Amino acid sequence: MRRVVGAVVLALGTFLVVAAILLPTYVASNLVKTPLDQYTVSVATADNATVFDVPSLSVQENVPVEATRTVRADPEKSTDDVVVFDEFLVLEDSRNNSQITFSSDRVGLDRRTAESQDGFDAAVDDEPTRHQGLVYKWPFNSEKKSYQYFDTTTRKPYEAKFVGTEDINGLETYKYQMEIPATQIGELDVPGELVGSTEPDVNAPRFYSNTRTVWVEPKTGIIIKGQEKQNQTLRDASGADKLTLFSGTLTFDEQTVDEAVSLAKDTISQINLVSRVAPIVLGILGVILIVVGLFLALRGGGKSSYRPVQPADNRTPVSS
């Protein structure tokens, strides 16, 4: 009986040791991937933006604006290694919830490195676009170095330089910053007077610049906070800025930051549980069970100390 119990305990202990080895290698490596069911909404606001009002053909100052970005994964088009994201960005005038701009993006990202992948119907505003660099998140175990980050407005990657660390709600983050110089992103037909022309209508070049700063939780690559100092103008024939279409500093609101911090902390806890805590506990328990199992198995294999009792001699002695 001891041999049977010992064998069972030994097998269980061996299983736990193997599980302790697999957790930080196979299981944890599969956990450290961008989820295929990810769905996030981030809100950035600016209280004193400058906005060109189309109906009145006038530039308005100190306008409160809100940018809502929705990023959702497409599980059906994703793979084990690549997650496909659809992104929608709406910029609104907060005073009357009127839409200022709208844009969309579709891209496939490596689930570990967050690098853009070719194919997967990648497009910006429904126009096929090849993405390069990071988009929407940083890699797991981000480093204190520069990364290429894709800007959907110019449809080009720019260097995001590591500029330091910063504590946000008790979470250490890596701070990265990129400078996007004034770049022409299109043309607009407008009344000539708006850009200093005597012509009734002109096709004015539209320029965009941005200083983008992101605060990243390095273990998970989750962007905790984002800020963009954007400027869009129309220029005249000489290349001088003549009309401001948009100018403002958009920063994640408090709720967006809190939700990102909570998500990052939960993800870190899950990774630590699978890669550190659980393997140690299972390993120690497994070794203990192996020792107990060997003891029972070997003990059960020894000779029995039981000896049968010899029957007593009940014969009556004969007297002489």
Structure described in brief:
By secondary structure, this protein is of the alpha+beta class.
Describe it.
The chain has 320 residues and is of the alpha+beta class. It has two domains: 2-23 and 273-300; 32-252, no CATH class. 24% of the residues lie in helices and 45% in strands. The chain has helices spanning 2-31, 254-300; strands at 39-53, 58-73, 82-93, 98-110, 116-117, 123-124, 127-128, 147-151, 156-168, 171-191, 201-217, 222-235, 241-252. A hairpin with a 2-residue loop joins β6 (123-124) and β7 (127-128). The longest helix has 47 residues, at 254-300. It is elongated, with a radius of gyration of 33 Å.
Structural class: alpha+beta
Distance between the first and last residues' Cα: 55 Å
Shape: elongated
- One letter per element, helices H and strands E, the order comes to HEEEEEEEEEEEEEH
Tell me the total number of β-strands: 13
Q: Helix coverage percent of residues? A: 10-25%
Descriptors:
320 residues; alpha+beta; 2 domains; 13-stranded antiparallel beta sheet; 2 helices; 24% helix; elongated
